[in-house]
Design goal:
By secondary structure, the chain is mostly beta strands. Helices cover 6% and strands 52% of the residues. The chain is built from 2 helices and 26 strands. The model has no long low-confidence stretch (mean pLDDT 96).
């Protein structure tokens, strides 16, 4: 079994643009230095938005050197980028955007959601790329709810939605990844427990989105990030109430992490080059 390393309480809320009120769970200047291949996690807890005729969200901005994974739990977000990717992600959908060599994109509440109003709940995870892939061609993966498989846990303990990687021998997620990654939505029923199959040597962690759980003799609740040691395999999680977990597990990338704003590379020189390339228009424009 993997030993529990720590339970981290994320920082306070801040706004990203005018459409996303998020909690910074971790970032590449802090815990993200130790949670490779995961760089940053922002979580937007359920928040009510009133109807509007305007646009709420984040305007045109660049990225280079990593991937963004946006998971919609409630609400709708429309995306466009300079590679030609785009679309609207709805509850249960996932947008996996590979910025790699450079991309410019924007994210806004969908027109329909803005018009009607409602509850928005989202999570965005930044996944690092190894040096060999940081300057590869950008790509966009729209993963719809219908195409994300769900596995049932033994003894009616709950379900696992497999976004990337696999769960057990037969359930595989649709996301294409550059390095081995498991990304799961786990729902546990109160009073039940489950064994999460984490590989030895992987970074294994999860964010509690709802409820209260116990693992390694400690209790974690909504907003807590549970981090395990890399050594060992598997972890047992018991639900003290109905619980929802965003589980992140991946093979570490043992390379330097140098980030500044929207760029994450391996050296300061590469960061400076990213800014120069963006200002020179080399990351494209949104058509």
């Amino acid at each position: 079994m993997k030993n529990l390393l720590k339970i981290h309480r994320s920082s306070g809320m801040h706004w990203v643009g005018d459409g996303f009120a998020v909690r910074s769970v971790f970032d590449y200047n802090g815990l993200g230095q130790h949670l490779s291949p995961f760089l940053l996690l922002d979580y937007g807890a359920p928040r009510e938005f009133t109807p509007t005729k305007g646009r709420r969200g984040v305007g045109s901005h660049p990225h280079r050197g990593f991937e963004t994974v946006t998971i919609a739990y409630q609400g709708e977000v429309s995306h466009r980028d300079s590679s030609g990717g785009g679309g609207t992600i709805k509850p249960g959908d996932v947008q996996w955007m590979t910025a790699a060599g450079g991309i410019v994109h924007e994210e806004f509440h969908s027109e329909e959601f803005s018009r009607k109003g409602g509850v928005m709940q989202m999570a965005q995870l930044w996944v690092n790329l190894p040096a060999r892939d940081k300057m590869s061609r950008p790509r966009y993966q729209p993963l719809t709810k219908e195409n994300i498989p769900v596995a049932n846990l033994p003894e009616g303990a709950g379900t696992v939605r497999v976004i990337a990687g696999s769960f057990g021998e037969n359930v595989k997620g649709p996301a294409l990844t550059f390095t081995p990654i498991n990304l799961w939505d786990v729902n546990l029923r109160a009073g039940k427990s489950a064994e999460l199959p984490f590989p030895d040597g992987h970074t294994s962690t999860f964010l509690v989105l709802k409820g209260e759980i116990e693992t390694g003799g400690k209790t974690a609740s909504e907003g807590d990030l549970v981090i395990f040691e890399r050594a060992g395999s598997d972890a047992i999680v018991a639900a003290k109430s109905d619980a929802h977990l965003l589980v992140m597990d991946g093979k570490p990338i043992d390379e330097p992490i140098v980030g500044h704003g929207p760029f994450v590379m391996n050296t300061v020189d590469e960061i400076e080059q990213a800014f120069m390339d963006f200002h020179a228009g080399k990351m494209g424009v949104i058509k």
